[in-house]
């Protein structure tokens, strides 16, 4: 289980991506008929934009929900919180998809396709082969772990060929900046913070290097008991997310502004982060759910997770992706 990726939304966006922040609430303060939902998120464009839109456009209120939003630093910690009942819904990146696949939660909505993950190295390191025997930091079980594993395999290496140190996001920033680690499996926007401190760092691998063999979706997940025992609330949450997605597709610039406002960071920093994101429309998600595209994505990811030792065997996507709930009411 990896460590938190709790992001501080009170300072710069890069620091926001790696520092702890106490829970903060969103959602309108309407009447007592609203149903409370504890909602986890990560302080970047992928993880925050729909919540920022739903708050600004009063979408939660429209669907009878009062959302208590809590910021985290990674997906695995949110899955853990779903299991303990501290969260109802959360957000995860692709590296954490093995957790719902292993039965620890349900994916209730695919969100975006990401291209923010990198393997970075200190100045002068020009290839993955040069990492042999070197110390590499990575938040285990995250998309940073995923990009590192894929990159090593492509280079004919494994984690046994390097010295892997499991670190939380804030530790990677400080350790890389102080040259205590040679490289890291990590992500933007936190890498942007490191670049300011370590000019000349090299990027040895990125998501798009592997797009022909694997997709890198992000998603919203819910606790198993929430989905099975709170069906009305689950349906309302999905409906609200769908409405926020429709707004985001139609108003990308505004979605960036609202995200920056929620995170209390400059718009330009969120804009740069959003450049690493492929936003998917509701229509696209509906089509890809129904035609099996998302199932193919998940099946491909499962193969990776089995090979990486996260899953014992491949799992049918329908056991953990509630596509029927997401597309309910569509033709």
Written overview of the protein:
It is a single chain. With 331 residues, the chain is an alpha/beta fold. It contains 15 helices and 11 strands. The protein has helices at residues 13-16, 45-56, 59-62, 75-84, 98-101, 143-154, 169-177, 190-197, 224-229, 231-250, 252-263, 267-274, 282-290, 293-307, 323-326, and strands spanning 35-42, 65-72, 89-92, 106-114, 117-121, 135-138, 163-166, 183-187, 202-206, 217-222, 277-279. The strands form 3 sheets. A 5-stranded mixed sheet has the order 7-6-8-5-9. A 4-stranded antiparallel sheet has the order 3-10-4-11, with helices on both faces. A two-stranded parallel ribbon has the order 1-2. Strand 6 (135-138), helix 6 and strand 7 form a beta-alpha-beta unit. Helix 7 (169-177) packs parallel to helix 8 (190-197), helix 10 packs across helix 11 and helix 11 (252-263) packs across helix 12. The model is unreliable at 1-25 and 27-31 (pLDDT under 50).
Query: What's the end-to-end separation, in Å?
Result: 40 Å
Q: For the report, how would you describe the main beta sheet?
A: 5 strands, mixed
The helix content is 40-55%
Widest sheet: strand ordering = 7-6-8-5-9
Key terms for this structure?
about 325 residues; 15 helices; about 20% strand; disordered N terminus; 11 strands; four-stranded antiparallel β-sheet; alpha/beta
Brief summary of the model shown:
The chain has helices spanning 13-16, 45-56, 59-62, 75-84, 98-101, 143-154, 169-177, 190-197, 224-229, 231-250, 252-263, 267-274, 282-290, 293-307, 323-326, and strands at residues 35-42, 65-72, 89-92, 106-114, 117-121, 135-138, 163-166, 183-187, 202-206, 217-222, 277-279. By secondary structure, it is α/β, with parallel strands linked by helices.
């Amino acid at each position: 289980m990896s460590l938190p990726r709790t992001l501080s939304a009170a300072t710069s966006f890069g620091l926001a991506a790696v520092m702890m922040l106490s829970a903060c609430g969103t959602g309108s303060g309407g009447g007592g008929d609203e149903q409370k939902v504890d909602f986890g998120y990560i302080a970047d464009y992928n993880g925050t934009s729909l919540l920022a839109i739903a708050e600004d456009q009063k979408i939660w209120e429209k669907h009878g929900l009062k959302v208590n939003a809590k910021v985290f630093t990674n997906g695995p910690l949110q899955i853990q919180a779903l299991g303990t009942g501290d969260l109802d819904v959360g957000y995860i990146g692709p590296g954490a998809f093995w957790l719902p696949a292993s039965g620890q939660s349900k994916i209730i909505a695919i969100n975006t396709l990401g291209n923010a993950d990198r393997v970075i190295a200190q100045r002068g390191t020009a290839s993955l082969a040069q990492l042999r025997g070197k110390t590499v930091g990575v938040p285990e079980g995250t998309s940073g772990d995923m990009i590192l594993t894929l990159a090593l395999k492509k280079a004919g290496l494994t984690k046994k060929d390097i010295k892997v140190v499991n670190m939380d996001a804030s530790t990677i920033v400080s350790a890389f900046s102080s040259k205590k680690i040679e490289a890291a499996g990590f992500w933007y926007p936190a890498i942007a913070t490191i670049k300011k401190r370590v000019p000349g760092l090299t990027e040895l691998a990125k998501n798009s290097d592997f797009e022909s063999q694997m997709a890198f979706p992000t998603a919203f997940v819910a606790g198993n008991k929430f989905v099975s025992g709170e069906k009305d609330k689950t349906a309302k949450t999905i409906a609200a997310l769908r409405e926020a997605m429709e707004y985001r597709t139609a108003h990308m610039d505004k979605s960036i502004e609202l995200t920056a406002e929620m995170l209390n960071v400059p718009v330009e920093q969120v804009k740069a982060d959003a450049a690493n994101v492929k936003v998917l429309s509701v229509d696209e998600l509906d089509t890809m759910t129904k035609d099996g595209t998302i199932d193919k994505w998940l099946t491909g990811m499962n193969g990776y997770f089995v090979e990486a030792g996260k899953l014992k065997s491949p799992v049918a996507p329908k056991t953990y992706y509630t596509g029927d709930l997401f597309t309910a009411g569509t033709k």
